[in-house]
Amino acid sequence: MKKSYVLALMLVVIAAILFWQTGNATSEYANFEKAATSGDKVQLVGTYVKDKPTIYDPLTDPNYFSFFLEDLSGAEREVVLLMGKPQDFEMSESIVLTGRMQDERFIASDIQMKCPSKYKDDEAMIKSLTES
Amino acid sequence: MDVQYLNEHLGPRYIGHFALLVAFFAALLSLVSYFMATQTRGEVLRSRGWQRLGQLSFLAHGAAVFTVIGCIFFAMLNQYYEYEYVTAHVDGQLQQRYIFSAFWEGQEGSFLLWMFWHVILGYVLMVTARSWEKPVMAVVCSVQVVIVSMLLGVHFGLGDMLIKLGSNPLLLLRETVNAPIFQQADYVDLLRGNGLNPSLQNYWMTIHPPTLFLGFASTVVPFAYAVAGLWTGRHKEWLAPGLRWSLFSAGILGIGILMGSAWAYEALNFGGYWAWDPVENTSLVPWLMLVAGIHTNLISKATGQGIRATYMFYLGTFVLIVYSTFLTRSGVLGDTSVHAFTEMGLEAQLLFFLGFYFLLSIGLMIWRWNHIPVPEREEATSSREFWMFIGSLTLFMSVILITGATSLPVYNSIREWINPAFDGLTLIEPEAHHNKFQIWIGIFIGLMSGGAQYLRWRERNFGKYFRSFALRTGIAVGGSVLLTFLTLLWIQAPSIAYKLLVFSGWFAIWTNLDYLIFFARKDARITGSVVSHVGFGFMLIGIMASAGNKRVVSQNQFLMEGLTEDEELARSTVRLYQDIPLGMEDYVVTFKSDTIEGLNRRYFMDYQRMDKAGNVVEEFQLAPNVLYDKGFEKIAITNPSTKHYWNKDVFTVIMGLPPEEQSVKIRQETEDSLKYRVLALDIGERATFVDTVPIPQRNSSVIYTYGIELTDFSRRPTHPDYTAEPGDIGLSARVHADRSGGIGSHDTVASVALILREGLLYHYPAQINDMSLRIKIDESVFEQLLVRDTDLDYQEYTLEPGSSITVGDQVLTFERFVSQPQVDHFQPQEEDIWVSALLSTADGQQMQPVFLIRGKQPSGVRDEITNLGLYAHLVSIDPNTNEATLRIAQANPTTALSIPLAVAPRSYRTDYITLQAIEFPGINLFWFGTISMMVGLLISMVVRIRTRVPRRAVQS
């Protein structure tokens, strides 16, 4: 049985190392300030600022979408998303971005949006069901 | 207030509710009976009695489950929208072939699908499991009890708490929501369905869920055998049937997972077949665990080693299946996954489901730990079982890593529950993270699945065998190095790990084929194993080729400074104008045209591949499409189109449309925001105007001078987009537009038309992209030109040819009939019969109202002399008397023909799309390899069923 114990021990050690690595690959959601100080790639949560300029003009550059985002600490910064404007962007309740700060702008290479469910209440649902 | 509702179909509701209760209590009774039958297995008669009861109640349970499914299908097929499940998943436009997709779109439907397979598997087990039937069926029934309870929809009070057990799929809409509409007795007639999510209207969605759920459901069988083995203490006897079932389960579950990734690749815009999405991960993890279990099961059968591990892997597989159900259905994944179900209020029940089987598994293991036989002699390091065991542990490692990373949302929920201020943790780049670890696991498994084939079971005398082992392994390493070298001439492997991955793939292929050729004669049972392991090798190479070497063809054309390489890669869409070819990498792509059919809009892209000298090597067309939501207010989904070659795929998907093409609302807003100016022009007249366009970035502006000339005008409308229909009234004009100012001058001729059809006006404007100019005929033209019949005061006259009448101040002469005249105001179609009455005034102006017979229906076309205000219809012709009945009216004459043209500058083009094109080299290696893995598992199963000891031999 000795060999099995050695194997089990090895497994525990490798698992511990790998888990430690996983721990390093995770982080808390950052805000603009943290992203600026670290300079690394981070994930960041915020909400779309509707009354600031939002630019997407595929005729100029289909991979450039710029808007303003308010992070959880209340700071507002310009975000440049390196892809087209996602569907239902204006409807999003909260936005998760992956990217980094470059000077005053946040360069995002990935976006996830949380959209409100289709119907705000039962009445809206029934209304949509009765319209043909 | 009680309302007597009209037109409700309550049959399926009553039958379905009753059947659900039957299903629940029959499963419960069957569970108790099989449990008692197992417990009393020493007393043959008593045990057999309990077993009979168990069998009968399980048969009843199955019948009840089928009835529930039948009731839901009945309501769906008949579109009984009073049922909540029907309104949620069906609508009038749903094609019959998607009715299955609609059924399992919802949580309840997919639970029923899962139960359906459990029932089928239960029936098979009742026939084939022999002495294992009692304990195994007891476990299957217990799972059924838990799942049915999720559909019961029973509410009961327990002290102060109201406990809700399950969500019933056969509830009426009025029972689930409270809305004023249910005050109306005839509310049923007002309801419409919501319809099936467009992304699921796909044939993959018809075959992927049932296969995946059969895979899910079948994991209960190895689990049940493991529990039965522990329960009855027959630790060795269950290994053979357990192995057969786990081979089946792993094969089917694997195929189900592959169908999911094929669906993602073929029908969604993910741009790949695997994204490490939590839902994908939680279906992969049980499969890996099951495969680990299959390997230890083989070891246990051959040597008696590793029975404990086999128990744990099979128990773990099912617990992971339940865990995956919990993750995807409880809403805990939240925003980390694109395709988790919405919450259904079953969190507590799901947690119980998970906790119960987790604790049961651990409890049984602890209880029986010392009872499980372990051979005294341990395996030698040079034996096959040793390395297979290491392989299983490596798979288990992979399971732990993927599960750990996927469970971050669960970890966060727990931390938040303890400390509400806790900020959730997240993987910054999940794909890169998973790839980093799994690549090494892939390398390890590849090497071991190859090398272990050369080792022997229970090796005691490796010294003797060593030369042969070293020789074969040495040749295999040499051959694989060569093949790896050749492969790397084709694809790139930027790091040593990637190179090793390719090597490991070839090593697995080489060694397994070698093994097959030299050993298959002795033992046919190894065929399945070889097919699977060769498949694994091909899969590794396929992953390296297609994912590691995917090439974004649609590379961004615009410069942006300061980006990293990864970020530059994210910019993977290009913009294509219609009919303007665009060179991307070695392709020239032209957006040719698009068609709309229902909500489906298909775009046709011509691809030309060029060689280095710029010659066209080949041409093909791809047709990606977008589906609009109802009402054309947004894009519901985009579907890619892929050109398949034996050695690569060219994948194309539409990433975006101009806002005006995405939504009719935006299109109308844009149209309304244009600043039209109306220019009234006679034929040959030219007008000019000036538009100043600011350039915000440079704080300056460009001044454009536009010139618009009306070159022609016709009352028989022609326009490239216009097809004439009978009854149309309209007009068209030719316009010559020019623009000077800015960088260059432009000059274009365009057609515009305006049609009145069945009381509605249709514009056929001209959009001149070179000068961002939009021209249409202003609607005020009708006030001038097209006087409506209802506004006119007609008098009827019956006249012979040659006779004259006086209308107002004009004398009109009916000259003669003209058969089949070619006139400006009427466009004849084939098989039309038409005659006109030629009327002329004293000063020689003429008009020809037309009498028309089209498809046996008589009708007419009016003619007019606008400057005199005369309008005439030819109502009928009397062939006997040769008289014409005419209706003629006079109104205020309208003055000279001037056509009001509405012209808007700064109308920007909408004839473009944004597109992503990716080349996946060697993707077929991935599909071939993965399919081969699953087929190998199923071959092994078939071989093992055929070599099974016949029943008679067991009984005697």
Automatic annotation (TrEMBL), chain A:
SUPFAM superfamilies, A to Z: Heme chaperone CcmE (SSF82093)
Major localization listed first in the record, in broad terms: membrane
Keyword Iron among UniProt keywords: yes
InterPro entries linked: CcmE (IPR004329), CcmE-like_sf (IPR036127), NA-bd_OB-fold (IPR012340)
Subcellular location(s) per record: Membrane
Keywords associated with the record: Cytochrome c-type biogenesis, Heme, Iron, Membrane, Metal-binding
Keyword flag Transferase: no
Protein name as annotated: Cytochrome c maturation protein CcmE
From TrEMBL, chain B:
Alphabetized UniProt keyword annotations: Cytochrome c-type biogenesis, Membrane, Transmembrane, Transmembrane helix
Pfam entry (one): Cytochrom_C_asm
Residues spanning the membrane: 14-37, 58-77, 111-129, 136-158, 212-233, 245-264, 284-299, 311-328, 348-367, 387-411, 437-457, 469-491, 497-518, 530-548, 925-943
Keyword Transmembrane helix: yes
Positions of the Cytochrome c assembly protein domain: 107-330
Family to which the UniProt record says this protein belongs: Belongs to the CcmF/CycK/Ccl1/NrfE/CcsA family.
Protein's name in the database: Cytochrome c biogenesis protein CcsA
